[in-house]
């Protein structure tokens, strides 16, 4: 993400945007084997053109393809950001295990941190009645999702899919006035959260993921686009360790993942890399989230030019004050969430402006790119999601008028 002289705040979002019913149906048919990849591939350019046009019409500056190349076969989907990698990595064997029931087997993990099943999260234990009540809104309409197992050497097989994502975004950008575009790609740490029956140690596993996913990072940045590294594992995995570890042990576990990511990013210009940290996309209480104060310094060691993080989420909205005591390194930018993906309430533009101004007062107005907390697609009704983008843009305009 490069700095420009627009004299205002430029807006963006985290990645996933709502799919149309037609695209969801195409995704479903492809996943169920009713159509081949070539048929889906031929339909994607039109869908991507539409969503880039929608972003431009709303006024979003730094746009993407809506993550439309990441298969999402249902309107509510919390896992497409991760599941897409299953079809782009070799060394995986299909499994019948629901990822909410399976347990990851980690070996020789730093700090002896072992991730439990998704259903054993500590937040879920505390609020089990709410999590298991389909009317509570916590995990309504969750579609069971199977995850594969690692049974052989990991390697990247998604060259055609990545090239399709790149070509579709480039064509849509050209058709809608150009500008800066980004594509989301999975981090090594998050890619490593599948069951492992092959690698002897956690370190071997994470670095194998880094070597494989590096090919996708290189393809995206080599095409002149920005790669967004999606890495909820940095923060979210804390809740998936049961019983609760010490912060020191967890940071040792997480540091390995950061080091592997930097290894995967070696040689890539930092201005073409932005990193996304979040505490997960489900609409739960999140009382067991790890506080950002434990992660901020580690995040800033990642070789990225910009850092995206949740800041509108009511569990983390107070943490903007951390930037008083954690100076932003020279040449870096922050991409704070100023509208949330976890509530149907559409933020007032004045609130959005206030949040932007808070960050600008601490890191400098030129270093703030207002954004969403996380992806909106698959988490919110499309009409609400697009209203939130409109509020984001309106709030950024108000803040720009005040500060530029």
UniProtKB/TrEMBL annotation:
One of its GO terms (biological process) is methionine biosynthetic process. GO terms for molecular function: 5-methyltetrahydropteroyltriglutamate-homocysteine S-methyltransferase activity; zinc ion binding. It holds the Pfam family Meth_synt_2. Residues 1-20, 130-149 are annotated as: Disordered. InterPro entries: Met_Synth_C/arc (IPR002629), UROD/MetE-like_sf (IPR038071). Residues 9-68, 201-397 form the Cobalamin-independent methionine synthase MetE C-terminal/archaeal domain. PANTHER family: METHIONINE SYNTHASE, SYNTHASE, VITAMIN-B12 INDEPENDENT, PUTATIVE (AFU_ORTHOLOGUE AFUA_3G12060)-RELATED. This is Cobalamin-independent methionine synthase II family protein.
């Amino acid at each position: 993400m490069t700095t420009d002289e627009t004299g205002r705040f430029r807006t963006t979002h985290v990645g996933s945007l709502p799919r149309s019913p037609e695209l969801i149906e195409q995704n479903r048919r492809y996943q169920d084997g009713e159509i081949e990849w070539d048929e889906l591939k031929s339909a994607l350019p039109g869908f991507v053109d539409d969503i880039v046009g929608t972003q431009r019409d709303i006024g979003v500056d730094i746009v993407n393809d809506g993550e439309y190349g990441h298969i999402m076969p249902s309107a509510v989907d919390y896992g497409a950001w991760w599941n897409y990698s299953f079809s782009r990595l070799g060394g995986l064997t299909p499994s019948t295990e629901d990822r909410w029931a399976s347990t990851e087997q980690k070996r020789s993990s730093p700090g002896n941190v072992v991730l439990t099943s998704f259903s054993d999260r500590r937040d879920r234990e505390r609020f089990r009645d709410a999590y298991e009540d389909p009317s509570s809104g916590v995990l309504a309409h969750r579609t069971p999702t199977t995850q594969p197992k690692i049974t052989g050497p990991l390697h990247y097989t998604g060259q055609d899919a990545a090239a399709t994502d790149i070509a579709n975004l480039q064509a849509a950008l050209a058709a809608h006035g150009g500008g800066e575009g980004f594509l989301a790609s999975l981090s090594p740490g998050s890619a490593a959260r599948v069951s492992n029956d092959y690698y002897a140690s956690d370190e071997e596993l994470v670095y194998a993921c880094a070597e494989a996913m590096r090919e996708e990072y290189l393809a995206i940045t080599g095409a002149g686009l920005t790669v967004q590294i999606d890495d909820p594992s940095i923060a979210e995995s804390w809740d998936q360790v049961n019983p609760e570890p010490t912060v020191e042990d967890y940071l040792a576990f997480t540091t390995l993942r950061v080091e592997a990511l930097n290894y995967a990013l070696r040689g890539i210009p930092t201005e073409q890399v932005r990193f996304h940290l979040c505490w997960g996309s489900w609409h739960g209480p999140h009382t067991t989230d790890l506080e950002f104060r434990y992660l901020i310094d580690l995040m800033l060691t990642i070789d990225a030019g910009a850092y995206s993080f949740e800041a509108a989420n009511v569990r983390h909205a107070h943490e903007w004050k951390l930037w008083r005591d954690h100076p932003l390194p020279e040449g870096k930018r922050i991409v704070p969430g100023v509208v949330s993906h976890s509530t149907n309430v559409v933020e007032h533009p004045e609130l959005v402006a206030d949040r932007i101004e808070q960050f600008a007062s601490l890191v400098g107005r030129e270093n703030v790119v207002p954004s969403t907390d996380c992806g909106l697609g698959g988490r919110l009704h499309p009409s609400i999601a697009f209203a939130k983008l409109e509020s984001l843009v309106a709030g950024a305009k108000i803040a720009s008028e005040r500060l530029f």
